[in-house]
Amino acid sequence: MESKYYISAYCHIKNGAISVNGIPDFKDDTEAFAPFAKKAYYALKIEHPKFFKMDNLGKLAFIAAEALLKTEYTQEIEENIALVFSNRSASLDTDRKHQASIGNMEAFYPSPAVFVYTLPNICLGEISIRHSLRSENSFFIFDRFNAEHLMLYSNSLLQEKKAEKVLCGWVDFDAEDYEAFLYLVGMEGNIENSIQEINRLYNIL
Amino acid sequence: MSDLKEELKAKIIDQLNLEDVSVSDIADNDSLFGDGLSLDSIDALELIVMLDKDYGIRLSDPKEGRKIFESIQVMADYIEAHRTK
Predict the structure, then answer these.
(1) Which residues of B touch A114 (CB under 8 A)?
(2) Chain A contact for B55, CB < 8 A?
(3) A6-202 has CATH 3.40.50.300 classification
(4) Where are the domains of chain A?
């Protein structure tokens, strides 16, 4: 069955490189994520000091959304864009840091700033605040990238008019292994919002 | 006292991940919240943990932090008067 919804833009972040619609946007040979994220922040001219307080998953999702949405919008967004994200590792990277801070009862000083990121969906809040999004948002945990679920869920949101567009995809971070793939679905675009096309885009990098 | 104030500025920058802020950017009487360094409620909790961990000061009421964290000067005065380590 032909979809009536389309993908208008997509973004990948992997192995120190950011690409938008398949076109390289930023690349850095730094192996570690933290310096890469910092360089990407300045290269993309993000100007959002709270970025540096985010955990790694939050930074990854934030940069991907920033790289993607800046191509679609030139000013502050107040459109009805829903967020549907997914990953495999949830917030495990930050969970481990929090666990390390509470493991020793003699030095029990859990960091509130770390603790607030022990939920993967916090990154949705960061993006919503940045882009003034007040619509539906969900974060799903899967063993692997699940194009079918993303397609069905985004189509449902659009059909039921819960949103005019849906920013969806995969944002995974664990122990310096990171990958982001986000795409924007709506009534307009050149790529059909189908399982086949979503998987094709996901596997481009 | 002067050393303590410089120490606090460095710790705040480091622990609260204040990018593009240096010790010399923070005056002793600058507001830490609001129009000053624009710290938020999570930062306030982080400072409460720092008082406990580094200076042995436990705040029984988090609301006490509002006054104590008014500026570096006020923080340093409070720490000097109450520190246990």
Answers:
(1) none
(2) no
(3) no
(4) 6-202
